[in-house]
Amino acid sequence: MYTALVILILVVCFLLALVVLAQNPKGGGISSQFSAGGAASMMGVKRTGDLLEKLTWGFAIGLVVLSLGSHMLTSTGGGPVRSVNQQRALETKLPAPAAPTGPAPGAQAPAGTSTAPTTAPAQQPAPATPAK
User: S-S: 79 plus which of 67, 74, 75, 128, CB 3.0-4.6 Å?
Assistant: First the structure.
């Protein structure tokens, strides 16, 4: 659906450019070359100008409506992701925070407790008794 809408927008842009170029500005234009045997001789100069103006407004309004429609289509999640960074951000899972094993650095230990690591006291070998 999104691809068809983009293709339709491109066609409307192309037609709008042709209609704008075909209009007869004050200094002449492409339409001056077509005026001898084209629509100007068939409908008259005034009616051709009105037709081209109406086509210009129609294509311009159609382009705006199609552009807004494509935005609505992508904002509902039906369209493609807009950038590689956004795609990576959606795929990345944050690691779970590790549970702290001891008091936070700089924190005071409760009274009566030691912050030194607790280890079992090393057993000293018994003194040897002299044999008699």
Answer: 74
